[in-house]
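okkk here we go again. third time trying to get the thiamine diphosphate bound version out, last two times i messed up the smiles copy paste (missing a bracket lol). double checked this time i swear
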Amino acid sequence: MENNREYIISAFTENHPGILFRVASVFLRRKINIESFKVSDSPVRGISLFTIVVEIDESMARVLVQQINRIVGVLKSNYYTAEGRLSQEVALFKVRKAILRGDTFEQISRKHPLRLLQMNGGASRTGNNDGYLVLRKSGYKEEIDALRDELKERGLLMELSRSGSIILHRETVEETMDGIL
Amino acid sequence: MGEKKISGAEALLFSLNAEGVDTLFGYPGGTIIPLYDALYVHADKMRHILTRHEQGAIHAAQGFARASGRTGVCIATSGPGATNLLTGIADAMIDSTPVVCITAQVPVNALGTDFFQEADIISMTSPVTKWNYQVTTAAEIAPAIARAFFLAGTGRPGPVVIDVTKNALVEMLDGFEYEKCKELRCYNDHPVVDTDALERAVELLNGAERPLIIFGQGIKLSGAEKQLRELSERGNIPMASTVLGLSAVPSDHPNFVGMVGMHGNVAPNRMTQQADVILAVGMRFSDRVTGKIGEYARQARLIHVDIDASELGRIITPEIAILGDAAEALAAMKRTIEARDRAAWFATAAEQHAIEYREVISKDLKPTKERVTMGEVIDGVARATGGDAIVVTDVGQHQMEAARYSRFARTRSLITSGGLGTMGYGLPAAIGAKIALPNRQVVLFCGDGGLQMTIQELGTILEWKVGVKIVLLNNSFLGMVRQWQQLFFERRYSSTPMTNPDFQKIADAYEMPHRRVERREDLAPAIEEMLSTPGAYFLEVKVDEEDCVFPMIPGGAALNDIMFNESL
Ligand SMILES: Cc1ncc(C[n+]2csc(CCOP(=O)(O)OP(=O)(O)O)c2C)c(N)n1
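finally!!
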């Protein structure tokens, strides 16, 4: 418990029904809470990439990866700490229009490089002030957290949706699964 | 196979035939009727053994597999039929038993509607199967069966469930083609053994003063019996077995020092603690083997050989981990192993065995009290069969005594539920073993509790004239639980005494020759009669009600903390 830190567990798998269930069961069986869990296409057709973030210690990370590798349908699972990989998140923030008052927007966007996606979302024709803006920010998890905290503190945050960690492997899929594909 | 149209159910049967299956254990129901219809039409191609409960079907398939090394097959209908298999599937998973379970499922367009007898068996069995798959078209049946057999029987074996929707059973196919599955890119059935690691392992063993080989069921699963013996003989290294490893080496082999674990022999448990190098092969460091893990084998440098990568380092991190097939690894190690004089180390085994003989074995086998002990019965059977029988057990005190006092001349001769400890396993597993190997003597030891969990399978014996010898060790208690209450809960026998039926009348009702023994002098003749009577036999022996299995290492204690009797 004391040595717990954030680990990213990745797994390349066949894109078959039932594998998601089995991968999730590896965590459930040991009552490990999952921080984020993402399945997406890999560059190779028919192969999916699982990216799972959990707070555990290294020996647990090793055991979990062994158990995932044991699942028929998993081609290769690994674990990393966030530093070891290029791990990023993308988040969409829905914020109050009040952010445009004074130089608040400039202040915030200078501190947290971001992109304004949508102006005037939901603004009603009568011209009252219930419209919102949509901001997009990508970066490390901590950077997303920092923007969230700032917007929250200023009472501007209405909604937030984030992607969970997406990682780019230093090696190519082919290298990662050397000898398997 | 020609142009004739066949149904999905027929394709299923022909697929099983193509895998060499001639016997199924199962139980019919509404959803699976099309398959039973195909069985009726093609009765010449497949024998179906109707058990009296689906749990009986899967345990029989397990016994069949454990005795013969062939994949066992059972079939069940959707819903309750399928859920009744669950205990056996979990048992097969933890004990690495190759079984293929075929369950029928509601039609594909009814999935998820709470249709009559719908149970989501894929979700339910995912954590306890090596692989499972739902077939929803007839065309998928043959490839799914091919994968099922490949996965169940290779690598570390295990259970596979194939769930077939009813529409797939009745759909018609143009002819039948079958191709065996030989590889899958997402599964490595045969990892290449790391020769570097093997060399380092042999170096460790060659330099060891007090080496010990501890082997598990992996030896039998790999067919590595000969390689194990040769390595031990050539290197002059003592070998010890887990419960599931028993019989892989003849009990009387001079290098065999006994069984490790909670009720294991004193010598191998003590030697584990004294060894300087341990070679663990095809075993998984179960808590029942290691006792308190932090105190386990503290002096030993550890080599672990297993074909399942997830076992290497799961419980204990070995100095040398060798991923691969036991037979290959041991054969390679044999080439460079050097014999060393280890007289003093073998003398330790003899000394410890003498202590165990004095403290426990003599009291079990030559008791001075009036009541018969379980040990006497098991020893009596071992003598009468010359160690040539397949011993099947249920779970409890009799199981541990059977492991301790049976003697084995041939491999795959102990069939017992190890990892799950499933009461009710014994009777159906014995049926499966006898059906697989009708020429072997199959003796079941069971308790009065466990027998009653699957006692309905006496009907299967009656119908199929299965020549199983049933030895009921009746102590009128759920003995093993009572032992723990006796030792650790100040004899508060909560719900462990049993009011039992007259088992003799039950045996009689099933037309089985039977006998009850209460006195010691009647025991040997009764065993003789049992073994010489053709076909099934029911021998009930009234044993002492409050006997305990010793030696015992209490749960969570270190291997050094051996109890020899109640007072210690
Ligand atoms: C299905 C199941 N339920 C409960 C248990 C717990 N349990 C283990 S041993 C045992 C007692 C077995 O009694 P019996 O069959 O009479 O055999 P004995 O120990 O007396 O030899 C029990 C209840 C179990 N192992 N399996």
